[in-house]
Design a protein that fits this description.
alpha/beta, 189 residues, single chain
């Protein structure tokens, strides 16, 4: 199979990585397709199965783990599993496209370690943990308890930033989008 490139964007929740990834996907010259992750959590808002995530039961997810169907997977929070199916990467590469991931830091680093030559791993750094908390509250999609879990995890995730190929500081979203575009364009040459 002809391998394309893998573009990993990781960050704590609320850092802006999803917005940056959507911006990159809207640039046809980059020839990107989004890798839809598998998840055991419930859909949020307007999320759709097969478009935003492959929503699975914990039992189904564990069957895929046992069958070694994942490139990477992680129990991100207790009984909250996320992972990248091998079939998803193969599907995108078969179309002659490059794969872009919006993924947690552990999963992103695992992809980089499995495909070191094909992967650009980018960490999106927020202005501050206080700003992260503000953004998460503004979303109004999760309880205070969930937000506090995400903030606690953010401290650990921020410590992994130096392990990534590049760090984009998202203090100004337009600047961060432009920087991400240039990094990706250069990597795909």
């Amino acid at each position: 199979m002809n391998k394309g490139k893998l573009l990993v964007f990781s960050a704590p929740s609320g850092s802006g990585k999803t917005t940056i990834v959507r911006h990159l996907l809207a640039q046809p010259e980059l020839n990107l397709e989004f890798s839809v992750s598998a998840a055991t959590r419930d859909p949020r808002g307007e999320e759709q199965h097969g478009k935003d995530y492959y929503f699975m039961s914990i039992a189904d997810f564990k069957k895929h783990i046992k069958a070694e169907d994942f490139v990477e997977w992680e129990e991100v929070y207790r009984d909250n599993f996320y992972g990248t199916l091998k079939s998803e990467v193969e599907r995108i590469w078969a179309k002659g496209k490059n794969v872009i991931f919006d993924i947690d830091v552990a999963g992103g680093l695992r992809i980089k370690s499995k495909f070191p030559q094909e992967t650009l791993a980018v960490f999106v750094k927020p202005p501050s943990v206080d700003e992260l908390k503000r953004r998460l509250k503004e979303r109004s999609t999760e309880s205070d308890e969930k937000i506090n879990m995400r903030i606690a995890k953010a401290h650990v995730e921020l410590a992994t930033a130096p392990q990534f190929d590049k760090i984009i500081k998202n203090y100004d979203l337009d600047v961060a989008k432009a920087e991400a575009y240039e990094l990706v364009k250069e990597f795909l040459k």
